[in-house]
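Appendix B. One record, verbatim.
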Amino acid sequence: MHRIFQAFIDRLSDSGDAVALRGAMGEAATALDLSCFAYLSMPHRPMQEARLISTYPSAWTAQYLRRHYERLDPVITQALSNPEPFEWGLGVEPIRMSRPQQELFEEAAQFGIRYGFTIPIHDGRGPVAAVTFAADQRYPAFQRQVQEHGRVLQLMAMYFHAHARRKFVHERMIDGVPLSPREFECLAWAAQGKSAWEVGQIIGISRRTAAFHLANAKAKLGVRSICQAVARFAASKPIMS
């Protein structure tokens, strides 16, 4: 465990973007027989969007974010209310759920996410976040790692959160102007020559919603056109994830 933990810390220190962060935690999770992981940072305000770094199936994470499942997810609800790590899913005392929450769990199961160990992060310096290690069932090796190394996994989650939080703060700054995750994402695709319709198709939102986010980015940057916003974006050389 010491070797895995040290390698994880070393990779985090060298990580400059979300891809590298995902690789650091993904490698550690695989080494510990923990299958896949997800880091979710809740938004500062209700209308903002959650941030996610994950090795879950991409079709599921795209659907989860698009439908704002973090507002419904009983695992996240428990993480928000209790800072202690907890298990959930197959073989664990069931969480009391509403019908929509049960349907969410059933959807997740279709993507092989049926059991997990979640570590809430309440650090008092921003929104609550959570790191979850998950699998399609409660494997003995997975359960053993949770039981024997739960506190180390909690420490890993805290380190990961600290690095991810710094990345999220800086990656959306354009000449000192902070953009929302969606505004930044839409502008990044516009900078690659994509129209509002194409942006919507790529990230799973409507053309109108993509245009809305682009207009907000334009207003925040104090420019009159999307072309000018794209020029500001390109000149700032932001970190891309």
